[in-house]
Structure formats: structure tokens, C-alpha cells
């Protein structure tokens, strides 16, 4: 059996839901409308890379994906720790496991648990401070990234 065409959506929606419920503040999905966010002092943007799919044997798959969250914050000379508090909150949301559910509107989508993705020990959670990204805009960005692996069997 070939890889299920729904796996990518199930991973994306499940991981996004996990992080949105685990992290305080505004979090949007990459590509979502940003209107009005320029008035917010801080927000985060969820991105998913992958999954990379490997089929080492019949009916057995390994899927790897990376969650990458971008934090955009206004530079506030009074409170320089605002973004660091949110980054700490996001780092804590990279739990050892994320449940992947069959979320969506397709015939196979019944909101049941597909499997549990496990955080990779090979790639520790990584925080990158990008600093002020444009000399004319008083905003700075940071990224937080973690990797997960999902094992699936099909019939």
C-alpha cells in the first residue's frame, strides 16, 4: 500500500492544534492572513517541514517532520525579556510526544488517534535569535525548532 495522502494534513493540523493549546498568546499558521498583527507587540507563526517518508518494509513507514515556530516581537527598551518568556513557553510545548489525529473533512477523517509522534533525540530543540531583521523596523525575530518521528503500519 502506498503512503496515505492524508498523513501530511493530519500531522500538520494535529501539531498545530497541540502548539496552539500549549502556548499562550497569538499563534498563526504559516500563510495565514497577518492583517492586524502589525499592531501586536508579539506573536508566533507555526511552520511544518516534511514529512519525509521512508518505507523500509511492506506496510511499515517512518515519517519525520520538523516544527519550526517564528516569534516576531516589537523591540521594547523597557521590557527586553518579553520575547524570552514566550520562547520559554514554546520550548516547553515541544513535549516528548504529540498525538496525531485524523483531523479534517475527508471520508477517512474521523478525529480518531492515528499514532503518537515522538520527539527526535538526534535533533535537540534549537532556539535561534535572529535579532532585528530590518534596520527601519523595530521588530526582531527568533525561531524555535524541534523534530519528530512517527511510525505507521498499514494493511
Describe the structure.
This protein is an alpha+beta fold and 155 residues long. The chain has one domain: STM4215-like (2-Layer Sandwich), CATH 3.30.2000. Helices cover 18% and strands 44% of the residues. A hairpin with a 6-residue loop joins strand 6 (126-132) and strand 7 (139-153). The model has no long low-confidence stretch (mean pLDDT 92).
Q: From the helix content, strand content and strand pairing, which structural class follows? A: alpha+beta
The CATH class turns out to be Alpha Beta
CATH architecture: 2-Layer Sandwich
Rg, alpha carbons: 17 Å
Find the CATH superfamily. Phage tail protein-like
Average pLDDT, to the nearest integer? 92
Strand content is: 35-45%
State the order of secondary-structure elements, H for helix, E for strand. HEEEHEEEE
List low-confidence stretches.
none
- What is the total domain count? 1
Helical percentage: 10-25%
Count of DSSP helices? 2
CATH topology: STM4215-like
Quickly describe the structure.
By secondary structure, the chain is of the alpha+beta class. It has helices at residues 7-22, 82-93; strands spanning 27-29, 42-57, 60-74, 97-101, 113-119, 126-132, 139-153. Strands 1, 2, 3, 4, 5, 6 and 7 form a seven-stranded mixed β-sheet that branches.
Amino acid at each position: 500500500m502506498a503512503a496515505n495522502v492524508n498523513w501530511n494534513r493530519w500531522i500538520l493540523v494535529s501539531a498545530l492544534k497541540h502548539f496552539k493549546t500549549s502556548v499562550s498568546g497569538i499563534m498563526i499558521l504559516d500563510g495565514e492572513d497577518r492583517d492586524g498583527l502589525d499592531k501586536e507587540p508579539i506573536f508566533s507563526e507555526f511552520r511544518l517541514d516534511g514529512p519525509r517518508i521512508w518505507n523500509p518494509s511492506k506496510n511499515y513507514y517512518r515519517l519525520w517532520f520538523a516544527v519550526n515556530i517564528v516569534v516576531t516581537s516589537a523591540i521594547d527598551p523597557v521590557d527586553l525579556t518579553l520575547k524570552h518568556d514566550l520562547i520559554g513557553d514554546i520550548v516547553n510545548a515541544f513535549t516528548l510526544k504529540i498525538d496525531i489525529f485524523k483531523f479534517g473533512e475527508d471520508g477517512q477523517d474521523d478525529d480518531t488517534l492515528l499514532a503518537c509522534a515522538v520527539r527526535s533525540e538526534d535533533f535537540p530543540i534549537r532556539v535561534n535569535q535572529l535579532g532585528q531583521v530590518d534596520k527601519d523596523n523595530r521588530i526582531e525575530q527568533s525561531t524555535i525548532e524541534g523534530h519528530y518521528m512517527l511510525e505507521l503500519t498499514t494493511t
